[in-house]
Design brief:
- By secondary structure, the protein is an alpha+beta fold.
- It has 14 helices and 42 strands.
- It has an eight-stranded mixed sheet with strand order 35-36-38-37-39-40-41-42, with helices on both faces.
- The chain is globular.
Amino acid sequence: MMDFSRFSVSIFSFLVAVLSVVGGSAQTPQREANPAEVRSGLGLEAQPFSTLVVSGDSRWVSFSTTKGEAFLNVHDGKRFNGREGWATNGASWSPVGSVLAFRVYKEGKIFLDVWDPSTDRDRQLIVFPRRMYPGNPVWSADGKTLFMILNLDLPWPKSRAADDNPPTDSPNAHLYVTAPYRQSSEYQRYKKLYQDAYAENHRTLILAIDVASGETRLVGKGNDIDSLYPSPNEKWLAVPQVKKTLPGRETSVTGQVLTDIYLVPLGAFLDQPVVDLEKFDDRSAGWYDAAGNRLSPALTDLDINDSNPWSPPLLQGNGGNPLVVWSPDSSRFAYATTGRKATGDVFTYDPAAKRLVNLTGSVVLPPWSKDLGYGENYTWKYSSPKFGGIFPPLWLPDGKSLVALGHGDVWLISSDGSVAARDLTKDLPFETVRIVPAPARNVAAADAAGGLVIIAKDKTSRLDSVFKVDPASARTTRIKDLEAWVQIQLSADQVAGDLFYLGTTEKTDQNVFQLSLDDAAKLDNLTRFKMQLADRQYPETRRLSWTTPGGAKAFGLLYLPGGASAEHRVPMILSGTPGDWESRVDERARHGARALQDSVLGFLKDGIAVLDPDLPLSDMGVYEHPMKQIVEGVNAAVDAALGTGLIDDTKVGILGIGYGGFMAQAVVTQTDRFKCAVSIGGFADWTADYLGGSHSNQASYYETGEGRFGQPPWVDPTRYTENSPSSYLDRVHTPILLIHGENDGVVAIARDQQTFRSLDRLDRTVIFSFEKRWPYPSPRDEEKIRIRAWFAEYLLGEKPTAHIAKIPSFFFGSP
């Protein structure tokens, strides 16, 4: 699986957007918005680490704050705070009543506790021995049993002959060999020994805990398990096992993995003896049920991506979006294949008949029609061609049909294939971003009349609205325009009478809201964190849109300093990351007031505007001259900003980090429209990076991932050279500041050393700041000062100071 931290680290982490509102009234002067005020004090945990969970009886909501978990009774307003050591991330409310199961960390041990808010008492069920690491608790449908995975980290076996011992955790050498050696019998023998030892060492137990007594029994055991899905009738436990990435089928966007699904029978575990975890030392590798019968996977090699490293709440699996969803009658489970290389079809599997059915194989989705632009929402970011994505298909309560998101619309899919799939929202001029699940998360939230609850997004404002959809007639009814950005954590109650969600706006921090889903559509603030932010004065912004030369819809946020006008045009800095997986307007929506950044405010106070644009590229692995796409996209974005009549076209700079650093170096080789450039952690030579970068042993990054070259450099070297700024350094006339950390483990510092030496030989204006003992990507405070001075020199005409050191250890010389 690819390390995607390299170039996809958004410029957001250093220089991203600020809030987009015009300042306050003339009568009452307002305090300026301050990033420190936004981030300090009590509030909800920042995205993407917030949680919002509703109890089974819909009386309680729990949510993550900066001081721990909080619990609120939505009927009488009673509140509780989580106690020290409570790890409520992954906590689970009982499906009936209000009892919370969660892990507790204290005294160097891990416990499983349950808490009843009606009495505010927590009860300890299990103390897990050291070297045993529990997963998230999962309730049975009747609320009497908790299922958990328990990962064992046992010592490596010591019974083997000395020359057959598997590698230790701290080997003296890492040995890399090529294919001829990997095919040798001796290599395969050692590889098999290592795999066997790993399987014995890293066992995963599946436990069933009686909530009343705390008695623990073994349900089954296997390897590499991270989620459990009990059927509603408690006959089966669907257990996915994530396997290694299949070469050639992964991409940097999805981290495509293959998954096997095991079905563990639950009928036998009650007859098993109680397990003493302190004395447990089972080293038998493989999959077994409670009775010791060997298990084989029901389904193998499914294209299911359950690993999203960027947004933990979006993870499929326990605590997030399920990989598989059981039908209400437990006769089948459904899933959608996910990933750019998957078909994205919806499948059902019948355990009794052992029958797998593709429900959407013949469905052809129309092109995206909502005109929101590339990467505009969560449904797109990790999507596959049809219905695969981070949200699974959901069953209707009657079990006869499923609903799934496809290209921003809600599709109704017959569970037996007897009726053709229908697009229920094709006439809705909004893009559906979420079908709201019921608390059980396998069924769509529906009211008594069968109306489904969906969240849909306006293409211009990106603000969210709530609708109900009638599956029979495809009629949509607007419940309420929320005038806010709804975060991904949301839930409806059991009867779809209320919607609970996290929301934020341009001028507020996140808060918890409750919306009644009836005609009254009453909206309540369940929390009121940092409400004073709405009274602050924020920088002015303009939301821009344009079409790239390649035909892609793009958006941008232009942040303006005070006094910008047609009569007083201001300098501007473009900062961005090409090919980002999310539109800039949507990234800002996720962060709300927390998008406010000191660095951007610094430029604005200097009188310099900041443009944060979308820079669309081709799909991962699809070669369409990425450097050309970047240069054309940057020029189109600048043209859109100039079209406002507020920007001085003779004073425009460019800044980028990582892949954005590559962007800055590429652009200045192809145009002289920029007065200056800053590249942080960038590079100029794709071939050198392929052969010597940190991803040199992960060729798929360059070929099928962000590099988009499609093949290695020895097959088509021209692709690499014609997209490398190093091939055109003699065309550079723009002053450029290169910043690189010595300990950058993502982009080798040698890349910028090569660029500096070449430009130095060409007598170009360049400074290379070699940051000793500093990693990628965030520059030190001195470098932030240097960046600001660099732009002040070239965009404001101030005295040159970027070349001056502020610390004694600075060394003048050639890198």
